[in-house]
Predict the 3D structure of the following.
Amino acid sequence: MNLCIDSRKVQEGDMFFCIDGSALDGHDFAEQAVDNGAKVIVYEHDMPMKDQEGVIYIKVPSTLDALNEAAASLNGWPSKHLTMFGVTGTNGKSSISYLISKIYTKYKGECGYLGTIGGQMEGKKYDVPLTTPDIIPLQRTLEEMRRDGAEAASIEVSSHGLIQKRVGAVDFDYAIFTNLTREHLDYFKDMENYFQAKSLFFRNLKPTAVAMVNIDDPYGKRIEELCTGKFMSYAIEQPADYMAKDIVYSPEGMSFTLVHEGKEYPVTTNLQVTYNLYNLLAVAGTLDQAGLNLEDVIREFEYIPSIPGRMDEIRFGQDYRVIVDYAHTDDSYNKLLHYVRHDLPGIRRIITVSGAPGKRDAGNREIFGHYFSQYCDYSILTEEDCRDEAPKKVADEIAAGMKDGYPHEYIENRAEAIQAAVDMAQPGDIVLVLGKGAEKYLDGTTGKRYWEGDDVSARKAVQNRLEREK
């Protein structure tokens, strides 16, 4: 017997759960599920029932809760057999969860990763279509990882994943909070609702679970009041369980001193930008709490291979720099652009390539434009998951936030926009390709279509220019 929430995919003998979603109510499709062969219908409110021999109807208080229990049980409750790390917040989820999986694997045991970059473990890939997979594929993938030898799993926990109870039956041992900045307000309407969604992660921790929280973020301080697990903190601007001081930036990365329980640890890393410093503090603190040797963890920070699409520098010996980053929120733009303008030495001009998603929080667009004209020298606006909005309309709304006279242009085709930015770069310039990172799709007016990824496109653009200049 398979579990199913899409009546169109029901096969003979399946159990169908009537999920009342934001757009559709599964109760309206129960009869179709029966027609397609479902033998068990799980529902939570009154609905027409098709009188058909062999079909069982089970009423429950919450079909989402029931689905969580059923999916976990069917797969042997995999999270109870794994050390589970979960990372939530607006920015930093991918970098932190990915680094945890890599370092844990080296020093303690196989640790799978699930998130924006995909699902993976050493030498293996897993099909995960969402940052936080839906209930059924999430439990199935955790069990696949466990069968493949995983001792732990590190996953990104999105606000949508929390509010939709996708992780309702995941037994977390470590919960990390990065920060909370403006995003998804098209869905949550305001920051308080957004915070309440994130806070669900910490309201439901078991007492033995460890919460590792950024208390430089004002929302992080609020988590301490409601956290049901063991509360631990990290910070740069104030005392915390894990804190950084004596921070020095350089073209090669940064150095700082990590302070924990009165002891100081010198740290050097090839990573750049202050938000990566926060990410490293979260990783160090969490893995220290998980029983790894803190000095071993810090040693791994010295050289961290670029995570696809995250501060991913394209280097072919050219006399200008090209960096691809997944930055796509106003806060991430502000921090990245401020760093490049004020903390990264030797930069002549900053050229950006970016857009903004359609059918999402449109209030971000003018803010993006403001930051571009505040920190940068030239911007190329382009398509970026515009969905049912015209790409030019989205670009115009970004441009509306720019200072009068700020030089910019619009090139709809994203690959052509990246090539144009690379072609105009002069010695000492830096080209920042922002928004998509390594994602392999663009969501347009006709739906999702294949996109090679900003990282791949930027590499091609640099190689094209080098080939022409031979």
In short: The CA atoms of residues 41 and 57 lie 5 Å apart. DSSP finds 15 helices and 23 strands in the chain.
